[in-house]
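Example for tutorial group B:
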């Protein structure tokens, strides 16, 4: 598995309706998403490290070390799967396991968009088209009709806080 290869989480279940986030809803969900993504980054890094250890142990013919490392790798994969399931339950999509890039499905300016967040950022400040990538993200202020989007987001936020 390449360290630089980007991974995309499995798609949400076809039976579950896709969640759409307003900006305030996405910011509230971000509290939990940050915790989960912290674990994803750790476990993904750990899995890469364990895979390298496993390959080295197998090349050296160290059967006992290979077995122990393989078991650690399986446990780490299970913890990672749990994290991915939790993100799926929240309704977001993990786009990059190493960098912690997450998309929040949203709707603005009459079309579906993704609110985009990366691990280490305090807030969601970017968006991109549904079929675009992280590299094409733009500041939320640059959204067509961004004033209307931000006003409706603020209105929705104040309604849900009551």
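The residue assignment follows.
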């Amino acid at each position: 598995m390449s360290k630089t290869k980007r991974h995309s989480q499995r798609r949400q279940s076809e039976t579950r309706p896709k969640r759409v986030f307003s900006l305030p809803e996405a910011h509230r969900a971000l509290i939990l998403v940050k915790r989960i993504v912290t674990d994803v980054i750790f476990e993904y890094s750990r899995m890469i490290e364990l895979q390298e250890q496993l390959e080295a142990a197998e090349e050296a013919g160290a059967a006992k070390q290979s077995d122990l490392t393989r078991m650690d790798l399986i446990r780490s994969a299970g913890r990672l799967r749990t994290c991915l399931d939790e993100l799926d339950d929240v309704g977001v999509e993990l786009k990059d396991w190493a960098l912690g890039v997450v998309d929040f499905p949203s709707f603005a300016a009459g079309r579906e968009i993704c609110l985009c967040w990366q691990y280490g950022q305090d807030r969601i400040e970017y968006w991109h088209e549904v079929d675009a990538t992280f590299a094409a993200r733009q500041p939320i202020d640059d959204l067509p009709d961004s004033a209307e989007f931000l006003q409706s987001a603020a209105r929705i936020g104040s309604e849900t806080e009551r």
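The beta strands are 93-96, 101-108, 111-118, 126-129, 138-139. Compare this with the pattern of hydrophobic and polar residues in the output above.
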